[in-house]
Design a protein that fits this description.
The protein has 132 residues and is mainly alpha-helical. The protein contains four helices and two strands. A two-stranded antiparallel sheet has the order 1-2.
């Protein structure tokens, strides 16, 4: 796909970019496309979230508009999943900190219990009576 002047104006690099070889191979692996029918000669361009919004304003037929709406909804879901994942990571870090402090407390508690379970030291018995 050659970027025309209109395309460049509507879709700058932050709206649309060309995949590199590794990204394209990862994409093919994820969607399971066949490589036995000739393949691509050039790497594809993809849209960012903002590019998908721009695309929906450019396309006019009902199918294209509905597809663009679905794309935007997918981006919103992905963003929400990322935000939720960050919250989950933060919660796990906090839990890890709490467990570490609890671990230290538990070790101290077990040491105190062990000390209480040890019999008191035996001192030599003092003899009653007179020494001769």
């Amino acid at each position: 796909m050659t970027k025309s002047i209109q395309t460049i104006a509507r879709f700058p690099d932050e709206f649309m970019f060309q995949l590199n070889n590794k990204e394209y191979k990862d994409l093919i692996f994820q969607i399971g496309t066949s490589s036995s029918w000739g393949g691509r000669r050039k790497l594809p361009y993809v849209f960012t979230e903002h590019g998908a919004v721009m695309l929906s304003s450019v396309l006019n037929c009902n199918i294209a508009v509905n597809a663009s709406v679905q794309i935007v909804k997918a981006f919103v879901k992905i963003r929400n999943m990322i935000i939720e994942n960050k919250e989950l990571v933060n919660k796990l870090k906090e839990l890890e900190r709490q467990i570490q402090s609890h671990d230290k407390s538990i070790v101290i508690l077990f040491n105190a219990i062990k000390q209480l379970m040890e019999p008191p030291p035996v001192s030599p018995k003092r003899r009653i009576g007179f020494d001769s």
